[in-house]
Amino acid sequence: MNNTISATERSGATVAVPDFFIVGHPKCGTTALYEMLRRHPQIFMPDVKEPWYFASELRVRAPPRPQGIAKTLEEYLELFSDAQSGQRVGEASPHYLWSHTAAQAIAEVRPDARIIAILREPASFLHSLHLQFVQVYYETEADFGRAISLESERREGREVPRYGYWPQMLLYSEHVRYVEQLRRFHAAFSPEQVLVLIYDDFRNENEATVRRVLRFLDVDDTAPVEAVEANPTVRPRSQLLNELVHAVGVGRGPISHALKETIKAVTPSGPRRNALYALQRHLVFGDPRAPEEALMRELRVRFKDQVVALSDYLDRDLVKLWGYDALG
């Protein structure tokens, strides 16, 4: 198994380079798959789940994170320095599938890489994605229908969150251009190097789907597989409280900055982050409400052409699987 390259241009060291990538989408089981794969003895995946390194669009203005963002290839490869000889080395950055740059950038560093994508029915995917964006403060419009309707204005730079990260992410229709996204990876990698999974299969036939991934990665597919529930969808109980907790987290504004400095003075950084996360989980967020059926139907009508095109592209009847045949 070849998972290292000679790095003579980089201090003469031999460094582990990822040879497989979970490229997305978010809210489609990527976190659960990452957690399940990294427990396999023949696989190494770093604690940093989403390095984002190969999506250059995401390095312009990134949200704060404890481990920072790798700005150079050397910094990125350091994430994999603990990989053992003979292990498959991988990472999971769900926005690579959305990115216009990631596929080619990965291919330039690792042309023999294996790529794993997970796709979900568009309307339910976007509903979960919107809730995720609200949770992590990329999005400030808590109403799903309103957020979707703002796309044309946001394309013109209006109605963009003042303190939001990655405003380009808020063009929701761009996330479900599935065929266009897959073509970028198929242009950079051979068909044998790209595995496309359907979220329904991952949810309904979890163990069988994971073992399919293990075979794709040429590792022991008979090893124990433990189901993992990760990154559950939540909604903010109060958008104002969500904004306050976020402001405290980044120290924005005189009041939040003073409060953060007070917390820092009496609490070590690790427990401080855990305290903020606990506050968010227990006070700020709750179980999501069911989306409006009329809105979901409207979205399915809008994106039916994308589902038809994907069905043809993958040679699988996703129109029927996802209920789009009942739309008329």
Quick overview:
The protein is of the alpha/beta class and 328 residues long.
Portion of residues within helices: 40-55%
CATH class of the largest domain: Alpha Beta
Q: Averaging pLDDT over every residue, what do you get?
A: 83
Spatial extent as radius of gyration: 20 Å
For CATH, the homologous superfamily of the largest domain is named as P-loop containing nucleotide triphosphate hydrolases
CATH fold-level topology of the largest domain: Rossmann fold
Overall CATH architecture of the largest domain: 3-Layer(aba) Sandwich
* Strand elements, count: 9
Explain how this protein is built.
- This protein is α/β, with parallel strands linked by helices and 328 residues long.
- Helix content is 43%, strand content 11%.
- It contains 15 helices and 9 strands.
- Helix 10 (239-250) packs across helix 11 and helix 10 runs antiparallel to helix 12.
- Residues 1-12 have low confidence and may be disordered.
